[in-house]
Amino acid sequence: MCRRWMLLVNNMNNRVNEYNDWSALKAVLDKSDLVFIFGAFIRGLHVMHHLEGHGYNVSFIDNDKNKQEGGYEDYEVNSVEFAIENSSENTVYLIPDNRHKQEMRKSLQELGIKYEKIIDVFKTLIPYKSLSLEVQIVEHCNLGCQNCNHFSPLAEKEFVSVEELKKDFQRISKLCEEQPLKRLYLLGGGATFAPKIRSNLRY
After folding, report:
1. pLDDT tens digits for 88-123?
2. 53, 103, 151, 153: most buried, per Cβ within 10 A?
3. How close are the terminal C-alpha atoms of the chain, in Å?
4. Is residue 93 in some structural domain?
C-alpha cells in the first residue's frame, strides 16, 4: 500500500481482568462449571453465541427487571443475585461491555464475587477495533503552518488521480471485508485543492 494511505487502529484500554487471546480464556472456561454473561445486549449475545458454539454452560444475568421478566432474544435472563445463589467456586462472570465494565465489576465485587472470577471479554471475544483510514489526496499545501508535521508546505504540486484512488479503494474494501472501516479521512496538504474532489467523494 502506498504512502498516501494510513490505517488507524483505535484500541480500547483500561481492561478489568482480561485475557488477550482465546486460548488463555478457554483454559479458564474449561475449569468452570457455569459461565454467567453480565449484560443481556448485543455484545453479550455475541459472546453467548461464541461460547455456546464451544459447548459451555452459559447464562445471561442483568440488572434490568424487564429483561429478567421477558428475556432477551429467546434467552432467559436472571438477576445477579440468582447467579450468586447458584454459583460455585468454579463459576466465572464475563463482562462484554467496555464502557461500563468498571461499574459492573464493582457491583459484582460488592456482592462478594472475587476479582479473579470477573473477566473482561470485550478484547477477546468482541470485534473491538475501530478502523479508520486516512487518504492523502493532495501532497502540497500553501498555508505554511509552523506546527505542521507534514512535508506539504515544501512539496511540489501533486494530486492523486481519481483512477488511482478507485484502484486503491477497491483493494481496501476487500481487505476490510471482515472489519469495516468506521471513518475515512481525505487529507492533504490542502485536500480541497484537489481538482476532482467531488469525483473522489462521489466514488
Report:
1. 999 999 999 888 889 999 999 999 999 999 999 887
2. 153
3. 19
4. yes
Contact 15, 120 (CB under 8 A): yes
Length of the chain: 203
**Residue 79 near residue 66 (C-beta atoms within 8 A):** no
**Closest CA relative to residue 75, chosen from 51, 107, 104:** 51
In a domain, 82, yes or no: yes
> Can you spell out the DSSP letters for 132-170?
EEEEE-B---S---TT--SSGGGSPP-B--HHHHHHHHH
In angstroms, the CA 28 to CA 115 distance is 14
Q: Report the C-alpha gap between 156 and 139 in whole angstroms.
A: 8
- When divided into structural domains, the chain yields a total of 2
